[in-house]
Each structure stands twice: as structure tokens, then as C-alpha cells.
Amino acid sequence: MIRAALVLLHRYLGLATAVFLALAGLTGSILAFHHEIDEWLNPQFYTVPSGSEGAPAGAPLGLVDLAARAAADHPGLEIIYIESEGEADHPALAVGEPPLDPETGTYPEVAYNWIYLHPVTGETLATRYWARFSFAAEDLIPFIYEFHHTLTLPGLWGYLLMGGVAIAWTLDCFIALVLTFPRGRPFFSKWKTSWQVKRGAGSYRTNLDLHRAGGLWLWLILLPVAVSSIAMNLPDHVFRPAVSLFSPVEQSVYYQRQSWTSEEIGQRGVGYAEILAQARESAAELDLDKPVYGLYYNTLYNFYAAGYGSHDGEPLGSPWFFFDGGDGRLLRADIPGRGTAGEIFEQLQLPIHGGRIAGLAGRIVICVAGLVIFMLSVTGIVIWWKKRNARRARGRRAAEAQALTVEHAPGE
Fold this sequence. Notes:
Layout: H1 2-31, H2 34-41, H3 63-73, E1 78-83, E2 92-97, E3 114-117, E4 124-128, H4 137-150, H5 157-179, H6 187-191, H7 203-217, H8 219-233, H9 235-244, H10 253-257, H11 262-265, H12 272-285, E5 292-298, E6 303-308, E7 320-324, E8 330-334, H13 341-347, H14 349-354, H15 359-407
Antiparallel strand pairs: 1-2, 1-5, 2-3, 3-4, 5-6, 6-7, 7-8
């Protein structure tokens, strides 16, 4: 009875999530190397024009100066993020959003929202619109990135949908594992066949073996990816409350301020210069010896965030400090490797999901895992379809046999 119930759960959880997981698996494989692919497709976003001696001349501008230059050159955008690695041969990045139109209560359309800056002069090198529905070279990776996380659905709908898929997938990981266990003994000698793909078998058996063995061989990879998918899509609504049952995890500043009134949120009282100074001071107080590479301002909830170290160079992710937009006081500091057990577990989710926790090898594993997820989804649908047709065929034969029995039954 229990096994039969698990079979039904596995069947319908798999069918409900198969298409979404197949799409997420394919796009996730690409995103494991999104930076390299985007740089190959769009070198204009990653190169700085050389000086007369083959290298940009002068020292890179600081984040505050770069933000000011971007704001001056692009008055139709409010600069909400500025990032620089402090290298003269690597462009800086500014992200902007159009200010809210007070008359209509909407945000006007803009041609671009990402601006690549010369790190030394601050001049604009290139622009792009992030997450446009397009397969053009400059739009491909941003579109795949958004599609992977939200299917490009509006508002929170994409996060809720993919978060629900991730929860179902996590549960199904355990159900699928149990269903591979043999019914008889000896356990391990019988279970061994579940890890194998039989040679020379028919198409159905090969499909079944690929589905079962593929899931088993990568189970210890697929489960963490499934759990991290919950953390990516439903961090405050599901993941942090669940982890907090075992170890405290503080809700994000973004989530906390969603319930605040406009009076509690307040008005912007400090700028990037004050926040940069506060970020450096706070880092020194917490013995964090890393430069600030990025500054972000949330216009809706009036808070700043400062990222330390490097955008892609930290295996466990970058430290981020959060500051009040009114007076600049430190709200919280997220430093990888520090905090409660629950907070450290949370910090691991993004590096696990993208594979960066294990460097290049980890990203390769995630790329392969994405392809396996696609394969498991397809083979699962094929198994269901063939079994469905077999059940229908048996039903037709049974109905035909019953009809013949009635037809030839002796009269009363």
C-alpha cells in the first residue's frame, strides 16, 4: 500500500513538474557558463578601448564618481547600482531605472537600463536592456537568466510557480530514491541493478534504466540543487522560516520592509558617498578586509547594500552589508562563513546552485546536472505515456473479453 501510494505521488509530481524542470535544466546548463558565453557573444560589454600604448591610461574612478558620471550622462535613469572591479581594462557597470511618473503612477519605457562605463574616464562604452524577450546576441543570456528563474512571468508569479516546482521536486527526490529500493534481499546486490543501464535491451527498458540510474548517480547533486531552488525563489516565504525551525535565520531587509508604512520607510537622506564611507567603516569594525566593489540602492524600500570583494571571484559568494537609506546606519551584515548554522546553510545555497562553490569543476557538474534533469523529465514522460497506453490496451482487451462472455452466455 505504501509503495503504491509512493508510485502515484512520484507519477503525478513528476508529470506536474516535468516540463518546468526540463526547461530549467536546459537553461541552467547554459547559465553555468553564462559569463563566458555572454562575453563571447558580446565582447563590446567586456572590453575597454586601448590607449596609445595598448592599455587604458590612468587610475580607475571610484564607485561614487562612476555613479555620478552615469547619472549625468543618462538623466532619464536613476542609478540604482554601480559596480567596478577597480581594473583599468575591465568596464564598470551602472544599472538604472526610470523614475516613477507621479501623474500616471507608472514607470516610463526606456531603451536600456544597463550601462557599461570606461573605468578610467567614466564615459559610456555600451548599453543594453536586461531581460528583453529576444534571442538577439545581446539579449540572449539576460533572457535565459530571467526565464530560468521566473519563466519571464510578471511580478511574483514566476517566483511562486518555480518555487512550488522546487518544493515538489525536493519531495520527489526522496520518493524516487525510495522507489529504487529492491523489495527482496540481499538488498545491495539487488539494488545494484537500479544503478545500471542494461545493454541490448529494448527501447522501453533502456528508457526506464536511464530514468532510474540517471537519478541515482546524480542524486546527491540533484537534491541540493532542488533545495537551493527553493532558496532562490521563495527565500523569505518558505526557505528561511523552514531553516529557522532548526537554527535562527533573519528575514531579509527587503522582506521586512514590505510590511512597513511609507512613514516607517522614510525618505532618502544619504547618497552613495556616505554609504561607501559607512561600508568601509563597518567592514573594518567586523574585521572584513575586502574592498567594496558594488553599491545598490532600493528605491522602493529605501535601503542600500554594499558588496565586498568581487562579483564572481568568491567561491562562497560575496559579503553584503545593508544600510538604512535615511540615516545610513548598518542594518545587517551577511558575511559568508559567519553567523548561525542556519545562516551559513543559507549562504551556501547560491554557490551550490551555480556550482561556484567548487570552482570550474563545480560549474561543469552543474552543467551536466542540468542536462540530466532534462533527460529525467523527458524519460519520465515517456515512461508514463507507454504505461498509460499499456493500461488502456489492457482495459480494451478486458472490455472485449467481457463483451464476448456476455454474448455467448447461455440464455435463462
